[in-house]
Amino acid sequence: MKNTLIITIGTRDIYVDEKVLNGSFTVEVLKNCLDKNNRPFARLLGELLLTKINSLKKQITLPIIQPAIDYIKRHSSNISKVWLIVTDQEKGVGERFYYNDSINYGKIVKQILGDQLQNPDGTKPSFSLISVKENITFLDSMYDEFSKSTLMKTLQAEIDETNKVFLLNQGGIDAVNTALLFHTIKIAQGKVAHLSVDEKSNQCIHLNFSEKFIEESEIEKAKAFIRNYDYSALNVLPLVTDVKNIAAYAQARLQFDFTKANQYLEVLGIKHRTFMVSQKQELQKIQQGEGGLIKELYFNARIKWLQHSYVDFLLRFFRIVEYTVQFKACRYINIQSFNKDRWGSDLDIYFDNDENGKFLQDKLNNEIVNGKQLDYYYPSISTYLAIIKNFNDPDFDFLKKLQTLSNLRNKSIGAHDFQPVSFDIIREKLLENRLTVDEMFSKLDVFFKLDFAFHNPFIAINKELTSLL
Asked: CA 205 to CA 198: how far, in whole Å?
């Protein structure tokens, strides 16, 4: 596994004692490298030092970089690649900015580290100089610049074979350093070793910023997944076992796999005992009868709607409509328990024995659906609707309007065709029947005697999950 070192070079990264400078260059030559406050211009002094680099190399010190190099040597077996980030602007930016560019300091650092760094196996790291040439003070520009850089492309391509990415982004321009930090964290994640040097004590410190940033970013991702009821996505995040088990419970419940859901509840830690008991009671209540199951399916469908999973919503919605009209029809014709295989014989019993039986049969014989006589011996939504219509059911008009979505489901990839499904298509279909989406859900809430925003059982699950992050 390789290790990579990234260093930003600034005007404080090179130091040469004044006596060494005076002994190597004339006063006039040195004066040309100073600003009006007698401070050295990095570009000019660096250029001057490069003319005698072989003789001066051992007398040039790296006050920020050297402690970091010493730290890396103590904590790493080798460095395969060194990236030096420098500024090299055009003269048009202004004399002060141009002459303080770190391009020549970068060249000096490259030579010094090239002599100093040698891996235990005798190999030396390769060096690359990355020059930032414009908009160096603008964070957004620098972020865009690094996103296209050879550095980040190489880092991304080699990250699987990389053990550590050491980052010393202390010297140089704030916007450059910040953009570089965020890109390095984004690509290298937990492999980043973010270094900083205390210039008073010359001690190198491993900062915990990247670890904290990644941890908080993962938490925010988890919260977003939870808000969207995307429980399976939590498996890819580094979360504690109880979080993953609660998420697995919720996912199994969404799939109506109540046996598996129970199993995930039973392995939760002690501190979740109250939650576990309440959820197990909920599961028992759901499975006591079809009424609990259909309400659970309604919550399930509403979640698919919130996730914009409209095909999945229609599949569930079809079952809700089918069950609702079937339940009502069966109650009207005295069928206590629906059985598809007995539907025809149960109908005949009602026709032959109930005082309203012949009247209903005559009505059904005259029922036309989609231009054809209704085959009421075939149990379908159309059959159930025809029955409840003849009993003047107060919900008939509303349920009839919902049938349009059942037809939409039939033509979708979830059933028998390849027709598209979207929010706009569903909304338009409802509006054709003078029904809005909000009205549909409001009436369904009333029909099921609940308030989705209040009774949605997954709210409690989400709260338990969020409390653990």
From this structure: 7
pTM (two decimals): 0.80
With vertex at residue 115, the alpha carbon angle to CA 112 and CA 119, rounded to the nearest 5 degrees, is: 125
SS3 of 367-399: the string is CEECCEECCCCCCCHHHHHHHHHCCCCCCHHHH
Nearest to 52 by CA among 25, 31, 26: 25
Predicted confidence (pLDDT) per residue in 62-115, tens digit: 999 999 999 999 987 789 999 999 999 998 898 889 999 999 999 999 999 999
pLDDT at 326 over 80: yes
What pLDDT is stored for residue 89 in this prediction? 95
* pLDDT per position as a tens digit, 351-367: 999 999 999 999 999 99
Residues 65 and 348: their CA atoms lie apart, in Å, by: 93
pLDDT band for 396, please (50, 70, 90 cuts): very high
Parallel, antiparallel or unpaired: strands 203-207 and 192-198: antiparallel
User: Which domains does the chain possess?
Assistant: 2-207 (3.40.50.10770), 215-288 (no CATH), 290-457 (no CATH)
- Three-class SS of the chain: CEEEEEEECCCCCCEECHHHHHHHCCHHHHHCCECCCCCECHHHHHHHHHCCHHHHHHHEECCCHHHHHHHHHHHCCCCCEEEEEEECCCHHHCHHHHHCCCHHHHHHHHHHHHHHCCCCCCCCCEEEEEEECCCCCCHHHHHHHHHCCHHHHHHHHHHHHEEEEEEECCCCCHHHHHHHHHHHHHHHHHHEEEEEEECCCCEEEEECHHHHHHHHHHHHHHHHHHHCCCHHHHHHCCCCHHHHHHHHHHHHHHCCCHHHHHHHHHCCCHHHHHHHHHHHHHHHHHCCCHHHHHHHHHHHHHHHHHCCCHHHHHHHHHHHHHHHHHHHHHHHCCCCCCCHHHHHHHHHHHHHHCCCHHHHHHHHHCCEECCEECCCCCCCHHHHHHHHHCCCCCCHHHHHHHHHHHHHHHCECCCCCCECCCHHHHHHHHHHCCCCHHHHHHHHHHHCCCCHHHHCCHHHHHHHHHHCC
- Residue 54 corresponds to which tokens in the numbers above? 């072989």
Given the structure tokens 């009502």, which residue do they identify? 328
Q: Give the type of residue at 92.
A: G
Share of the chain above pLDDT 70, in %: 100
d(CA 465, CA 244): 9
Residue 161: both structure tokens together? 């074979």
